[in-house]
Amino acid sequence: MSLLEVKGLNVGFDTPEGEVHAVNNLNFSLNAGDALAIVGESGSGKTQTVMAIMGLLAENGHVNGQAMFKGKDLLQMSTSELNKHRGSEIAMIFQDPMTSLNPYLSIEKQMIEVVIHHQGLNKAEARAHAVEMLRAVRIPDPERSIRQYPHEFSGGMRQRVIVAMGLLCEPDLLIADEPTTALDVTVQTHISHLMSALRQNSNAAIILITHDLGVVAGLCDRVLVMYAGEAVECGTVEQIYYDPKHPYTQGLLNSVPRLDRPEDTELHAIPGNPPNLLSLPEGCKFRDRCPKAYAACTETPPMQIDEGQHAHCCFRGASE
Asked: Which phi-psi region, left, alpha or beta, contains residue 112 (left: φ > 0; alpha: ψ -120 to 50)?
């Protein structure tokens, strides 16, 4: 049985202009010890996918489908039931540390509450564990720093605190939303190593949401590519990087520098803009930006699965 199995996930938001279709019929699964990257442009539905799974959608949001975690549907749980899983079995590292940390509470108060509640440690044990985790994410002088408040930290240090809080209880599933965005390259590498160690030591699964394809290659086994709220391709890191099937995946890879290409290789931006999520077009959502679009693309392409479980939805197969 999969640790997490998402089936037919749909996420929408009611707005004065109409319903925003943020995620549409999304399916994926994750076994213990797996690391899945979800990639795509801003607005592709990556963050709303995991926010729905965690029960953290905005008030105007609504969700249907299934998110089976250890055989139980997270989407059908009440807030009190979800709270038994969030923080201990499922932890999330949020993208914006300023909105994730309570400005009125010290870092110590925010960290040890999690450990005391979920692991049953006393205050002294919880504090010692929190200090060690701050040291692991390279917070200077953690014994002193833990007594400080969020506004006393830089943006990068706040992000490291968020990472430390996510790793505190060694969750079975760690969801990381752009965890290294505000960090310099050396700390990014260190955080990636910490998450890899979590996988190795406790067989935890990881969902990584990121724009950094370099981080993906170093940490993840599989990649799910999303566009306009839909999955357009899913495969192993090797399949996605060296044999991308969907033109959108190819466009993403062609727009970033790569060490396995000649130095004078020209980068190419994907032309145009993503479609309006208030009124998604019929057929392939990428066709207006696709250099390989043809008449059949006015119909919705089915998800095709090749040998090796490489899935993609493109009539051409994108290898032409």
From this structure: alpha
Q: How far is CA 100 from CA 69, 74, 89, 91, 168, in A?
A: 24, 22, 19, 13, 15
**Residue among 125, 192, 136, 140 nearest 164 (CA):** 136
pLDDT digits (tens, 9 = 90+) for 14-39: 999 999 999 999 999 999 999 999 99
In terms of Cα–Cα distance, which of 221, 195, 166, 173 is closest to 69? 173
Tokens of 106: 């010290």
Confidence tier at 156 by pLDDT (50, 70, 90): confident
Q: Report the DSSP beta bridge partners of residue 304.
A: 312
pTM of this structure: 0.91
User: Positive or negative, the Cα torsion across 99, 102, 108, 109?
Assistant: negative
> Which residues lie across from 12 on neighbouring strands?
21, 62
